[in-house]
Design a protein that fits this description.
heterodimer, A: 260 residues, alpha/beta, 6-stranded mixed sheet, 43% helix, B: 325 residues, mainly alpha
Amino acid sequence: MTAPLLKIEQLSKRFGGLQAVADLSYEVTEREILGIIGPNGAGKTTAVNLVSGVIEPSSGRVFLDGRDVTGQKPHVLVESGLVRTFQATTVFGGSTVRENLRRGAFRLLYPGFLATLFDTPKAREARARTAAHVDEVMHWLGLERFGEHVASSLPYGIQKVLGMGIGLAARPRIILLDEPVAGLSAEETDHVRDTIRLVRERGIAVVVIDHNMRFITDLCDRVLVMAQGRELAQGAPKDVLANPAVIEAYLGKRYAKAQR
Amino acid sequence: MTQATKITGGVLAAVVLVVWPWLTDDRFLHHVGVLIMLTAIGASSLHLIIRTGHVSLCHAAFMAFGAYGSVLTVMSLGLPFPVGLLVGTGAAALLAATIGPIVLRLTGKYFVLITFLFGEVVRMAIVENVALTGGSNGIFNVPPPHPIFLDTKAYYYLALAFAAFAVGLCARILGSEFGRAMNAIRDGERLAECSGVPVIRFKVIVFIIACALAGMQGSLMAHYNKVLSPENFSGIISLNLVVMNVIGGMSSLWGALIGAVFMVMLPELLRGYVNIQHIIFGAILFATMAFMPGGIIQAARHVKAMLSAKPDAPAPPLARTGAAE
C-alpha cells in the first residue's frame, strides 16, 4: 500500500462546551474515495473545516503527503494541492461559469503581482494554460453549454456542480466535497456520482461527506461513519453496513428507510 | 466595444484632456481642471479599496501624511519637491502597511467605524502637534513644485500627468489577474480563500497602493493650494471620496472618475444658489441612492442597453430534468 496522501491523527475541536469533533483519525491514499457519513450535527462539516484550514483544531494533526499542515490557512493548503467545496451552493453568483472557474484556478493563473501587472510572457503563458484547463474542467462536468451564463441564473443542480468545478479548477491532488448532492434529484445525484468517479480517474483523491447512504456506498472505496463528533466505524462500505454497532446505534432506522 | 473603438476613444479623450485648457483663458476653469485631476487620484485609489469589499473612511488621513510629509521635507529640510513627493507618498504607504494588516481583518460596518476613528486620530494628532504641523493654523507659503507651476495651466498638466499615472495604475491592477482575485474576494471572501487567494495579503497590497496614491494626491494638493491645514483632511473629505464612488457607481473605475468630476463640478454649477446649495446637493445624493443604486455608470449602462434593445438571451433548457426536488 502506498503512503497516505492525507493523514488525520486524533483531530479534535471543542466549541465552548460542545465537543464538535473528537479524536477523529483517517487516511486517504492517492486515487481513493473516502466517504464520511453521519446524521446532522455529527461533526462532518467541522471535520472538513478542520482539515481545510477554515478553522483551527483544538488538538490533533493533519498530514498532507507526510508533511504536517495542521492549522495552515486554506489558501496555503490549496497551494499544496488540497481543496474543499462548500455545503451550500457556493459560487460567484454574479459571474459567468467560465469566470467562476478562472477564479477557482487562481493558483495556476496568478504569476505574481509584477508579472501580472506587466503581463509578462510568463503571465500570458499561465493564462493560455489555464484557459485550456478551464475548458477541460467544463468538459468533465458537462458545463460547456453554460460557459457564458451567469452562475446565479443557472438551476440549483448546475450551481452545485459548478461549486465542485471551482474546486477542481485549482487542479488539486485531493478534494474535500461537503455534501455535493444535498438537495439534488436522484438523476442529478447519479450525475454527480459519475463525475466524482471521473475525478478519481484523473488521479485526484476524494473525501466526500453526505448523509445519502446509497450515494456514499455506491461511490466510495471506504466509509467512515460519524456520530456525535466521533468515529463509529470505518472500513469498506459492505463491512461498515454490516457492523452491528452502526446498525444499532445509527444506521438501523435511516438505512432501512433508504432501502425502501 | 471593439479594440479599435476603445483605442480611438482613448486617443480622443487624451487629446481633449490635453487641448482644452488652450481653448479658454478662464483661470477659474483651469483651477477646476486641476481639482478634478487631483481628486480623480483619490477617488480612483479609494475605488481600489472598495473593490476588495471595504469602505474606508480614512483616505484623507493618508492624504494628510502625503501632504505634511512632502511639505515638511521641502520647507523644513530644504529638499527639492520630487524628494518631498516621494517622502509623502512613502509615508502614506508606510502608514498603510502598518495599520492595514490590523484593520483589514475587520469587515463591513466595523471597518467603516475604525477607519473613521483612525482618520479623526490622525487629524487630532496634526492639530495637537503644533511645533511640527502648525496646529489648526496650518502651514502657509508652501512653495510650488517649481516656479513654472505657479501658472494654473501648467499645474493642470502636472496634475493630469499624475492622474493619468494613478488612474492607469488602478485600471491596470483591476484588469490583471490580481484584479480578478480582488473581484473574487469582493464576491465571496471565503470561497476566494479556498480557491487559493491569500485574502488578507492581497487586501493589504491594495490598501498600501491605494493609500500611497492618496498620499501622492495630498502632496500635489498641498503644493498647489500653497497652504495646508488639518481641515483639508477631515472626515468630510474622506466621506466625499466615498460619495464620489457611490454616485458614480462602485462597480467600475469609471464610476469613481465620473463621481470625481461630478462632485468637483457640482458646487461650481450651483454657485448661483449658495444659500440652498447643500440642500440641492443632498437631494441629488438622495435621488441617486434611491433611483440609481448602481450609480451614474449603472444608469448609463441601462440606458445603453435599452437603446440597443437586445434582450438577454435566456438560459438554454436543461438536458436533465428536475433541477431540484
